[in-house]
Automatic annotation (TrEMBL), chain A:
Keywords tagged on the record: Molybdenum, Oxidoreductase
The keyword Metal-binding is annotated on this UniProt entry: no
Required co-factors: Mo-molybdopterin cytosine dinucleotide
Protein's recorded name: Oxidoreductase molybdopterin-binding subunit
Species this chain originates from: Caldisericum exile (strain DSM 21853 / NBRC 104410 / AZM16c01)
UniProtKB/TrEMBL annotation, chain B:
Domain 2Fe-2S ferredoxin-type residues, every copy: 1-76
Protein name: Oxidoreductase iron-sulfur binding subunit
Gene3D superfamilies the UniProt entry points to: 3.10.20.30, [2Fe-2S]-binding domain
Keywords, in A-Z order: 2Fe-2S, Iron, Iron-sulfur, Metal-binding, Oxidoreductase
Domain of life: Bacteria
Gene Ontology terms, MF aspect: 2 iron, 2 sulfur cluster binding; metal ion binding; oxidoreductase activity
CDD domains, per the entry: fer2
Organism: Caldisericum exile (strain DSM 21853 / NBRC 104410 / AZM16c01)
């Protein structure tokens, strides 16, 4: 099929508004009479609030409400904005009497100004019964450890052991697989707490509409889940709530959580006044969400020819004080990694997800796969070394191919059983070859090129992810034709900066053969647009895009039907849409979409040409990516500097190359930060010691290497116009590829990320002992 | 207390609390194109030009710069008449979520005023204080280089 609109660099439709500072974000509108909300946080990692006295705070002029566990709904729910029934435990209340980490919410003040609210917080007197705390999963699982959730939350595996979830899936006979192997390698790797760090922090404003319904304008990735969960917490029907998603200043998973919305809505419901809550950068670090740190052990058995006989992965996940996304992130650690090496007939994945008295991990780009690949892709290199194979060769022997499946697909989904899936598009060998060529892998690998104290090395890693959650994620759209041949598209999807609205305009433009500028896209407003699960699980283009594609096809059918009537012909099988016209190839008759709309609005057969469509997927087609990196390790300082980073990516048909490139590079740089500098530092009492960009270092423009994205197109038959996802996968490469490159350079493996100078120097010292 | 500024070429007088930082004064008075939140001068989202020099408005006391000339992103171009830098950011895929974009463009604008022929290193240095979590900077740097070409052509 000839592509007209997709595959082109259509300008991002909201880019000029953003580049010129139009008031498009949540907090850019300022409602009169707004109450400003500020929070009081627990200074203790584990404590029961014995007494809380808010009377002095309430007396302060300008204070209208002080919220605590005493006067807010004690409805146990999950803050995870996931589909329903929810896979995360119901272990959170708006305010808890039992506070479980330094940063857990104790109270909130709603006042006429932020200054008054902040002042009032100081007047709240709290008496805590401080309890012993646990900070590692190992401590938390020990006999006699403090129980974090004594209420035995719905959805928790074993609350007495602080065990939120336990996952065990098996295929084949794992012990037999290891016995058959000529070499067996086992490797353990630990990943750290990290923050998403979108530059816009969490922000919500709420107000009553003229009929007394609550309107929530929020920086969220999941408007429809916000509506459902706020209704649950407040005990009111969803019909009383409208959630509007304005432009979002980045999310990366952190805004897949209901954190401020229910508090704002409650204040508005109780006072009738607009309410506003905006997290500071510090609050973002201590009280929003983080990435699940994991300790992962991978054991691989392989024959002399390189073929894997068995893979076992064990993941121990720290889910902090609350279990949001605990089960599903850990599920993905196995389900998004192990099928990549389907040549191993014997596979086992086990995971434990454990509460501790630390900040709360949630969804974060990569979603467990990042952690899984950090360990798996270094272990694969270790096996290759033992067998005398190179890293690319061993992957070529073992990777999954088009037409193939893996038993893991069926055994393990997101928090429940998965679905049988066959790979329908795949270009891994090409990714490996092109990536290796671009970095000069075979010219550099094993050469340890030295310049004084600096040694260069190269490393690589291979990845897959998914596109949406099969049989769960649904998206839908409506669209209608206007007098000038333009089309309004209302879809439930949530562009959070990725460019999804533009992709949608291109899909509609392609199906109807109209200029994407004539596609007016209106995303996710729960009153106006139909449902969509939201922006997560790499589902934007695949799920929301497919919903739009299906709807555009229906609109197209209606257009052809009307054309048939207008042409006075019997059937429309020879009709084509071209540049805003319907043309009968048989009779040569033509009508523009504009004329058609005038005709159906005002003249004949009067009706609105309008369609509604939905999409739910039976599968989650994985994109694939091969990452290559050249690093320089300074043996004197321990500093690791990436010199060049290459990502060869198969995401199916590329709908917009420039936007796709942006997703790839952005994820790589986020990954590099996670691999080299980004980590939470905690005090002995569990307090975050570095809750700011001064001490928590995310990459700046001067920290980036040369980055080369290579797009290798395949055609994914289950995706819209052949597309798969690209948003998450490229964050997964930096830890393993850089880890493998460090090994290539200096011959040491560092057991945990980030690869800080201290760890590199320590590893070198041990090696030279 | 009262302060006077020239913002984007127009004169303004605000009655402010002496403890307020410029970012808050600007946003409260409708200049919401100035973004912010870190209040430490570390993210750069709140960058404005003060007498032509890029500064983080979250770390400047509004009272201290009474009489200053302030330029926000709307001062260099708006949605109807965008500046070549704004056009270049749009065209080169350098705008994702867009939250950092106004600050980054203003830093680049100040650089190009001083040095119309910057090297890649000069560009990286100029926007070093404008953190971006979406783009990975590559397309931003490409956009700034493209804007230099546009400016030379007088577009």
């Amino acid at each position: 099929m000839e592509r007209q609109i997709i595959g082109k660099n259509v300008e991002k439709i909201d880019a000029l508004a953003l580049a010129t500072g139009q008031p498009v974000f949540t907090d850019d509108i300022n409602l009169p009479n707004t109450l400003h909300i500020k929070f009081l946080y627990s200074p203790h990692a584990n404590a029961i609030i014995e007494d809380i006295d808010t009377s002095e705070a309430e007396k302060l002029r300008g204070v209208h409400m002080v919220l605590t566990y005493k006067n807010t709904p004690q409805v146990y729910h999950t803050t995870a904005g996931q589909g329903w029934p929810e896979p995360s435990p119901y272990d959170t209340c708006m305010f808890n009497q039992h506070v479980r980490f330094v940063g857990d919410r104790v109270a909130a003040v709603a006042a006429d100004s932020e200054e008054i609210a902040t002042e009032a917080l100081k007047l709240i007197k709290v008496k805590y019964n401080v309890l012993p705390a646990v900070f590692t999963p190992e401590e938390a699982m020990k006999e006699g450890a403090p129980i974090l959730h004594e209420e035995n939350p719905q959805g928790v595996y074993d609350y007495k052991k602080n065990l939120v979830a336990h996952i065990e899936v098996k295929a084949g006979d794992i012990e037999k697989g290891f016995k058959e192997a000529d070499v067996v390698v086992e490797h353990t790797f630990e990943t750290q707490f990290a923050q998403h760090s979108p530059i816009e922090t969490h922000a919500t404003i709420s107000y009553l509409d003229e009929n007394g319904r609550i309107v929530i304008r929020s920086s969220t990735q999941v408007p429809f889940h916000v509506r459902r969960i706020v209704a649950q917490v407040l005990g009111i029907p969803v019909s009383q709530i409208r959630v509007i998603k304005p432009r979002i200043g980045g999310g990366f998973g952190s805004k897949q959580e209901i954190i401020l919305e229910e508090v704002c809505a409650f204040v508005t419901m109780k006072t009738g006044r607009p309410a506003r809550a905006v997290y500071s950068r510090e609050e973002e670090f201590i009280s929003s969400r983080t990435r699940h740190p994991m300790k992962i052990t991978v054991k691989i058995g392989a024959k002399k020819d390189g073929k894997f006989t068995a893979i076992r992965m064990y993941a121990l996940s720290n889910t902090g004080a609350y279990g949001t996304h605990g089960l599903t992130v850990a599920s993905n650690t196995g389900s998004k990694t192990l099928p990549l090496y389907n040549k191993a007939p014997n596979v086992e994945f086990v995971a434990d997800v454990v509460y501790t008295n630390l900040p709360v991990p949630g969804a974060y780009r990569g979603y467990g796969a990042t952690q899984g690949y950090a360990c798996l892709e270094q272990t694969v290199d270790m096996v290759a070394e033992k067998l005398g194979l190179d890293p690319i060769a061993i992957r070529k022997i073992n990777h999954i191919r088009k037409g193939e499946t893996s038993p893991i697909f069926e055994a393990l989904g997101e928090g429940r059983e998965g679905v049988v899936q066959y790979i329908e598009s795949e270009a891994i060998d090409k990714l490996l070859e092109l990536g290796a060529k671009e970095i000069g892998f075979y010219e550099k690998w094993g050469k340890k090129i030295r310049n004084g104290s600096k040694v260069r090395g190269v490393g690589m890693s291979l990845h897959m992810q998914g596109s949406g959650i099969p049989k769960i994620d649904m998206g839908s759209a409506t669209m209608k034709l206007n007098e000038d041949g333009s089309v309004n598209v209302l879809y439930g999807g949530t562009d959070i900066g990725t460019g999804l609205d533009t992709v949608v305009a291109q899909i509609v433009g392609e199906v109807l053969s109209i200029d994407p500028k004539k596609v007016i896209v209106y995303p996710s407003d729960t009153d106006i647009t139909p449902f969509d699960k939201g922006a997560y699980a790499s589902s934007g283009t695949f799920i929301s895009g497919s919903a739009v594609y299906n709807t555009a096809l229906k609109l197209r059918d209606q257009i052809l039907e009307v054309a048939k009537e207008m042409f006075g012909e019997q059937d429309s099988k020879d009709y084509i849409l071209k540049d805003g016209f319907v043309i009968s190839e048989r009779s040569g008759k033509r009508v523009s979409l504009s004329e058609m709309a005038y005709d159906t609005f005002y003249v004949k057969k009067q009706k609105q040409i309008m369609a509604v469509g939905s999409f739910v997927s039976e599968s989650s087609p994985p994109p694939f990516a091969a990452h290559f990196v050249e690093v320089e390790v300074d043996e004197e300082t321990g500093i690791v500097t990436p010199i060049k980073y290459v990502a060869a990516v198969d995401c199916g048909i590329v709908i917009n190359p420039e936007l796709t490139k942006g997703q790839i590079i952005g994820a790589i740089v986020n990954g590099i930060g996670y691999a080299l500098t980004e980590e939470y530092k905690f005090g002995e009492n569990g307090k975050v010691l570095n809750p700011n960009f001064m001490e928590y270092r995310i990459p700046s423009s001067r920290d980036i290497p040369e980055i080369v994205p290579i797009l290798v197109e395949t055609y994914e038959p289950t995706g819209p116009l052949g597309a798969k996802s690209v948003s998450e996968i490229n964050i997964n490469g930096a830890i393993p590829a850089i880890g493998n490159a460090i090994y290539d350079a200096i011959g040491v493996r560092i057991g945990s990320s980030p690869y800080t100078p201290e760890k590199v120097l320590k590893a070198l010292k041990e090696k030279n002992k | 207390m009262k302060v006077h500024y020239k913002i984007n070429g127009k004169d303004y007088e605000f009655d402010i609390h002496p403890g307020k930082v410029l970012l808050d004064v600007l946003r409260e008075n409708g200049f919401t194109e100035v973004k912010g939140n870190c209040y430490m001068g570390t993210c750069g989202a709140c960058t404005v030009l003060i007498n032509g020099t890029p500064k983080t408005s979250c770390t400047i006391l509004a009272a201290k710069i009474n009489g200053a000339e302030i330029t926000t992103i709307k001062g260099i171009g708006d949605i109807l008449n965008p500046h070549p830098l704004q056009k270049a950011f749009v065209e080169k895929g350098a705008v994702q979520c867009g939250y950092c974009t106004p600050g980054t463009i203003l830093s680049a604008y100040a650089l190009l005023k001083q040095n119309p022929n910057p090297t890649d290193e000069d560009i990286k240095k100029a926007i070093d204080g404008n953190l971006c979590r979406c783009t990975g900077y590559v397309q931003q740097i490409e956009a700034i280089k493209y804007a230099i070409a546009l400016l030379k052509e007088g577009r």
